């Protein structure tokens, strides 16, 4: 299991949930009533599931694909540790994943 911490835009903790191994962060966030649209249904053809990952956690994720990087160029409020939630898979090696929605 991965403990996913969702932060509000001000950095305060909003919610913590457990994600099963193999779960997509987009699905976990939507189940936890987080404000992620995922308009394309996780098909990586939009940037409406953009999240900012905590620096320590970002370093433990596999690198983003070139296609994901291209879509992040279209997202609002992109940071160095931005990812598309539809492309982040929770696995046991993560243990904890902290993310916030861009402002």
Could you tell me the strand content as a percent range? Answer: 15-25%
Helix percent reads 10-25%
* Count of runs of 4 or more consecutive helical residues: 3
Strand order, sheet with most strands: 2-1-5-3-4
> How many DSSP E strands?
5
Structural class comes to: alpha+beta
What CATH architecture label applies? Roll
Large-scale geometry: globular
End-to-end C-alpha gap = 28 Å
- Give the CATH level 1 class: Alpha Beta
Concise account of the structure shown:
The protein is built from three helices and five strands, in the order E-E-H-E-H-H-E-E. It has 103 residues and is α+β, with helices and mostly antiparallel strands. Strands 2-1-5-3-4 form a five-stranded mixed β-sheet.
Question: How is this structure best described in words?
Answer:
By secondary structure, this protein is an alpha+beta fold. It has one domain (2-100): Ubiquitin-like (UB roll), CATH 3.10.20.30. 17% of the residues lie in helices and 24% in strands. It contains 3 helices and 5 strands, in the order ββαβααββ. The chain has a 5-stranded mixed sheet. Strand 1 (2-7) and strand 2 (13-19) form a beta hairpin. The longest helix has 7 residues, at 25-31. It is globular and about 30 Å long. The model has no long low-confidence stretch (mean pLDDT 93).
């Amino acid at each position: 299991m991965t403990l996913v911490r969702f932060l509000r835009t001000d950095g305060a903790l909003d919610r913590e949930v457990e994600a099963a191994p193999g779960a997509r962060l987009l699905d976990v966030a939507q189940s936890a009533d987080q404000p992620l649209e995922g308009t394309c249904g996780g098909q990586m053809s939009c940037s409406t599931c953009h999240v900012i990952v905590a620096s320590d956690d970002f370093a433990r994720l596999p690198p983003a694909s070139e296609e994901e990087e291209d879509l992040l160029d279209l997202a609002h409020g992109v940071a160095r540790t931005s990812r598309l939630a539809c492309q982040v898979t929770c696995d046991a090696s993560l243990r904890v994943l902290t993310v916030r929605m861009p402002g």
